[in-house]
Amino acid sequence: MKSNIHPQNHLVTVTCACGNTFETLSTSPELKVEVCAACHPFFTGTQRFVDTTGRVERFKQKLDAQKKQAEKIAAKKAAKKAVKPLEEAKAE
Predict the structure, then answer these.
(1) For all residues of the chain together, what is the average pLDDT?
(2) pLDDT band at 92 (very low <50, low <70, confident <90, very high)
(3) pTM for the complete prediction?
């Protein structure tokens, strides 16, 4: 078998939005969750409305950030193409 191909497991503290924390093993250094067993309606027996608009807003922010990054890359490529013909004209 190959050695050193598996990711490292870390003992991490999982932090819930309600403030509850517990420890587990994970390959990521930090975990944050929105709902845990201490605050989930199924385990607590209480009804609670989950804010789904926050999820949509976060998705839209991430999508906008990706679009801005793609625009920056496209602008750099366009600027690079514009510089090349000038360099070729000077060489002639």
Answers:
(1) 83
(2) low
(3) 0.42
Q: How many residues does the chain have?
A: 92
User: What's the number of CA atoms in the CB half-sphere (13 Å) around residue 29?
Assistant: 0
Q: Which of 53, 58, 67 is nearest to 32 (CA)?
A: 58
Provide the residue ranges of all domains of the chain, joining segments of one domain with +.
1-50, 52-92
Q: Which residues contact 22 (CB under 8 A, 6 or more apart)?
A: 13, 14, 36
- 12: Cβ–Cβ under 8 A, 6 or more apart, which residues? 23, 24, 25, 26, 28, 29, 30, 31
CATH architecture of 1-50: Irregular (4.10)
User: CA–CA separation, 50 vs 34, rounded Å?
Assistant: 9
d(CA 49, CA 91): 68
Q: What is the CA radius of gyration of the chain?
A: 24
